[in-house]
Amino acid sequence: MNRQNLLKVLLYAVLIGYSIVTFLPFAWALSASFKPLAEIGAGGANFLPQNFTLDNYRQI
C-alpha cells in the first residue's frame, strides 16, 4: 500500500469517526422521544425504548 492510499484510508477513517460522533446525539434524542417520561427519568444507557410510545408527539 503506497503512501497516498494510506492517507486516503486514514482520511476516510477520521471522517467516518467524526460522522458517528456528530450523529449520535441526534439519534439519542430521537430514541428518547419515543420513550415514556418514566423510562427517560430512570436513567441507564438503553438506546432503544423498552416501552415504545407516541404520547410525547400527541402532546405537542
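The record above closes out task 2.4. Task 2.5 opens with a second protein, given below.
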Amino acid sequence: MFELRGKDSKTLKIVLDGAAGSGKTFTALRLAHALGSKVFVIDSERGSSRLYFGEQVDGQTWNFPSYILPTFSVDCYTEAIQQAVQHGADVIIIDGISQAWNGANGVLELVDMLGKQKSADGREKGTFQAWGAGGKAHNKLIDSILTAPCHVLCTMRTKADYVMDQDERGKMKIRRVGVKPVQRDDVEFEFDIILRMQDGIGTVTKSRCRHLATDSQWPHPGQEFADVLKKWISGGKESAAAEFEQVTQGPPVQESDAREWTSEEMRAKISELVSSGRVRREDILEWRIRHDIPADMKLTEDQTYELASAMMRKAEGGTAEDVPF
C-alpha cells in the first residue's frame, strides 16, 4: 500500500572522488566523525587512512579501527562491511572502491578471466557473456553498501576523460573533456551525494538533498557540510509529502521531452528511477549487453538519451525493447 511518510532511519551513501592528493581520505574521515561516533575504515589504499590515526581535528581525536583489504574481490569488500556493521559502526568509510572495479581480483579481472574460459565447443566465451557474472558481482558490492544500516562514505579515484572530435578541417582530434571516476559508468545513480575533491575543495556534482545545491563548492568540508546533511535526514516528512504529491499527481514525462534534456538531466532522471526502485540496475546492464556496450564504457550523449528513454518506458509498465531507437 502507498503511504504518506518519509524513509525510516535514513542513512547517507556518499561518494568522494578525485585525483591522488585531492583530499579524499582526510575529508571522508572529517565528515564521518561529524556524522557519527563509531567510525570504521575499510582501506584499499595501502593503509593511507592510518596516517591520520590519533589526529586532533575539530575538537575530536580520530581513534578509528581500520582494516587493510588483502585483495580487492567483491567478497572481500562485502565481508569487511558486514564485520563493521556487526561491531556497531555508525559510519563506514570505504577508501576506496575503485580497486573493486579495476584492482587485483576486482570486477574487470573477473570478467577477463571468465571471458577466456572455454565453452562446450572449445571457443572462448567472450567478454559480453562474462559480463553477466561480472555485473552480478558488482551489484552485490553496491547492494551491501546501500543496505548497510549506517552511513557509508566511499572514495573513488578519477582519471582524465577523452573523446574523439572533428576539427574545423574535418580531421579527428582527441579532446579532453574533464575527469570521470574509476568505476562502473552508472555507479553514480546509486548514491545520495557525490563530492568531487580538488586541492581540499569539494564540489557537489550530485545531490538528492534539497538543502545542498549541485555545483556548490565547500572548502575543506567538515561539520558545516555534515550539519546540512543531518538536517535533511532528520526532517524528511515535509519533503516526503511533496515528493508523494509530485509522483501521484505530476504529469508523466514524455519521451519527446527527454530529447530536450542535457546529458546531466538525463543521467539524473535515470538515477531517480533507480533510487525509487522503478528500474533495477540489472535493467541497465541488460540494456548495455543488448546494445553491445561494455559496462566500463562511458555512454555518448545519444546513448544516454536512448538509455533514459528505455528506462522511462520500462518504469511506465512497458519494456526497454519497446523504445524505437
